[in-house]
Amino acid sequence: MIPAFPAAPPRRPVPPAESDPSWTRLLRRVPDRELGMAPVICVLLLIWAVFGLLNPAFLSAENLVNLTLQSAPTGVIALGVVLVLLVGQIDLSVGSVSGLAASIVAVTTVLHGWPVGLAIALALGVGVCVGLGYGFLATRLGLPSFVLTLAGLLVLAGVQLRVLGPSGSVNLPFESWLVRFAQQGFLPPAAAWGLAACATAASAAAQLRERSELPRASLARVLLRTGALAALLSVTVAYLGQGRGIGYPVVLFVTLVVVTDVLLRRTRWGRSVRAVGGDRRSALLVGVPVRRTTVSCFVACSTLAALGGVLAAGRLAAANQGTGGAETYLTAIAAAVIGGTSLFGGRGSAWSALVGVLVTTSISSGLTLLDMDTASRHIVTGLVLVLALTADTVLRGQRSP
Hints:
globular
């Protein structure tokens, strides 16, 4: 007698897309890059409005100039964190790398008389070596990046103390071109306006090129984006020009963001980065060089962290045991996540570093003007980070099929 098998339970019917709430369907139509940036920009404008009402000095031209200069070193570090997060990894040692780079520049130039350019090259070379080590251990041996870079944080912090020596602090001379670049270097007004015009023209040309490749793109949308960018740059240049203007470190940071954004959107390497972060196994099956892509992101992250440390040393004209401490890497990671980069990998933008660091620096500057202590700044930044993580998780769940 043939045994009777129980019938399979009927499958629950999958509701059609039309039955989803209208706001869910809208979220699925919005590109990931635009979805991640719009809420953060709204939060940034809200922060500026609140602090501007509580203390009008916050929105003064001079304070915004200081805010942008303060954001540049941390923003460069956060840009590297964005790249590592995009491939589904993390680097907790970016603060120690930046502190070690700052110490190398200070010790070699002040105590050993090296040229500043050679000292910076050595610091960046150390960052490259650290990234190669992380990439090799993470891809070849399969070590988890969280524990690996946490160990690296401790090791590099110890190396930094060895480099600084018994004094624990080295001051850079104000005559050094690095200090002048980071503290006193500002674009002339004509150069600032010319750079804004070139950026607007380049953006319009890139969008028109995309429109030629994608006929469905609306010309009105291109014109609207170009006009909005021109207005934003004009207001920024004109308002900051009432103070000292736009600093050279800010120009360097924004240039790095633009170059990274183009690489992520327009090159095979950028597509590989998003593929590895989106689904590592699928990327491996379709022939994406997963190991090489992951190593390149670790190298870029450590190198940018070293560059951020060099800029921080120039801005403070010193390097000490507190340079690149816990606040540095926590702020950099928080800025990347708050800016819209997903901790799950595969979603984010180079502009996340720019917007995210403006949010964290604005909170710190605003609370300082309100005579709030360091504990309050940490608490508020942590709460904003929790909100960003919550929004990322919710939006990711709503957009998943």
